[in-house]
Model the fold of this input.
Amino acid sequence: MSKIKKYPFAELYEMSSGISSKKEQAGHGAPFVSFSTVFNNYFLPEELPDLMDTSEKEQEIYSIKEGDILITRTSETIDELAMSCVATKDYPNATYSGFTKRLRPITEGIAYSKYIAFYLRGYLFRKSVTNNAFMTLRASFNEDIFSFLDLHLPEYEQQVRIGDLLYKIEQKIQLNKKINDNLEQQIKYLYNYWFLQYNFPNQHNMPYKSSGGKIIYNHQLKKGIPENWTVVTLNTLCDILSGYSFQSNDYVDNGKYRLITIKNVQDSGVNLNVDNYINILPTKLPDYCILKPENILMSLTGNVARVGLMYDNNCLLNQRVALIKPKKIQVNSFLYALFKSDAIRTTLEGLATGTSQKNLSPIDAGNINIPYSESVVNSFSNFIEDKIKLIVRNSCETLSLCELRDWLLPMLMNGQATIDN
Done:
């Protein structure tokens, strides 16, 4: 077992505040690390997703170098405070948000950056943060809290072995996500090309509209659609079925079945990090609420019309989340592309009612009219089916890798397990 030694956090790193920026600076200029990027990543992405118009002086003061830790400074809840993200390389000209803090190493050979990335996300360190944080209207991480925190680290060589192993797992997780993002973009592009621009392959395998295909004005839709297409309502293609109202007294910790709520259906897809489980299925639970991989889910409350694919078993559909169930299974892939499209989401958002919180009626959603050709829809579904299956397979593998990482993490961090040379 590797020897664990305690170090005051503040003796290994120096803390600096982030840049105070104005709204007009955002969206252009040099690379920028936002609160969201720090919160959602163990490591900074290869390419930073945000931009900020900053001066050379600001880029010098708020620089980001290999080994730097960026940590969330403030949050509405203590559980989201001091979430960390580590830089594995220098980021020239980049700066970081004022809602974060930068911790820069002031020693060498004591803390290995890739190990630290996982250590700071581990249960024991997260617990020490929440125990020391204070809450007014928002949780805040400051110099006082920083000075109270200790790091319990094994020998440097053991940190390297542990950090490199976990980093390889994390790289595979991120690669799967990148592949899925690319597949989603392909599906979106193909849907727009076939069903919005009407450039589906014609009988000569040429783009229909671009090759002179006839477009006829449709009075019901108030726009042109391809000749011989019809207009159908969504409920002729699918049932939009709301989930079951589970009783809170049935909830257990880490039970057999996950409960999928609106929190779990995000713009990026379905997240299986759930809050509640049950062990026994209610007697009146509809069969469709027992979810299967490739099921399409949609949020009905709050930020409505978010859509994602299921990719695991033993998950149950909670109320205010809908299952989009195809009348014919062969159109499931088409329905996913349809409901993920910007056009249908805008329409669905327009149907939502409510002031403090929007609610979308499955009945109203099912009455939406769309242009339709059975042969084109079937061809499209067949064309993208393999992409859908790959998204599900990658998501399932990512879930397994995350569970493996989270299982290994506490044992490696507290010295219960080590990695030999």
Remarks:
- The chain has a mean pLDDT of 93.
- DSSP finds eleven helices and 25 strands in the chain.
- Residues 111 and 122 are 15 Å apart (CA to CA).
